[in-house]
Amino acid sequence: MKRGRVETERGSVAIEAAILVPAFIAIVALVIAFGRIQTVQGTVTEATRDAARAASMAPPAGAETAGVQAARATLSGAGLNCPDPTLQTNFGSGVGRAGTVTATINCTVGLTTILWAGVPGSVEISSSFTAVVDSYRSQQ
Predict the structure, then answer these.
(1) What phi, psi does 136 have (nearest 5°)?
(2) What is the pTM of this model?
(3) What SS3 class is residue 93?
């Protein structure tokens, strides 16, 4: 009489590992991919807020330029290359009247850029933010 394992179960651990390890690796890779995409979304949101805030603090004549420069600086600092952000400005109609600046960034990022080399496809990330212009600041 033999003690321990039965001869028919020999090698079953290796087969189970061969099946489960690739599935576990795939799940970990998906979690990492989701986290990286969320990080890029956060960066685009940050760039949008920076653009709106910079434009709201700049004089009306240079507001759009200041906003675009702020957005580009934030995006390039994170290694992203997105097309020009759009800014809509409404500085109010005089001192004492509040205005707004709305910045919108639509960015198509290739998965190769944010994940691993050779991953096909892209993800569309967009963000919009509105900053209120100080109603008592100079309008020049």
Answers:
(1) -110, 20
(2) 0.75
(3) coil
